[in-house]
Amino acid sequence: MVQAYILIQTEVGKASAVAEIVGKVPGVVQAEDVTGPYDVIARAQADTVDDLGRIVVAKIQQVDGITRTLTCPVVHL
């Protein structure tokens, strides 16, 4: 199982709507609007890194109002 945090920047005033939509994407465990340099932080999980990439590129980045994403995979050192 691969897990990652996806940091999301949105258009002004779209954070709540984006968080709600992203939170319903299959593979996304949680999505919340936050303050700071990013507007939404989501936690996602998938069976493989490729599957995780597909969630981000094919599903999350297609949500209206998202301007940029940064995917941070969880590592266990």
TrEMBL record:
<dbReference type="InterPro" id="IPR011008">
    <property type="entry name" value="Dimeric_a/b-barrel"/>
</dbReference>
<dbReference type="Pfam" id="PF01037">
    <property type="entry name" value="AsnC_trans_reg"/>
</dbReference>
<dbReference type="InterPro" id="IPR019887">
    <property type="entry name" value="Tscrpt_reg_AsnC/Lrp_C"/>
</dbReference>
<protein>
    <submittedName>
        <fullName>AsnC family transcriptional regulator</fullName>
    </submittedName>
</protein>
<feature type="domain" description="Transcription regulator AsnC/Lrp ligand binding">
    <location>
        <begin position="6"/>
        <end position="74"/>
    </location>
</feature>
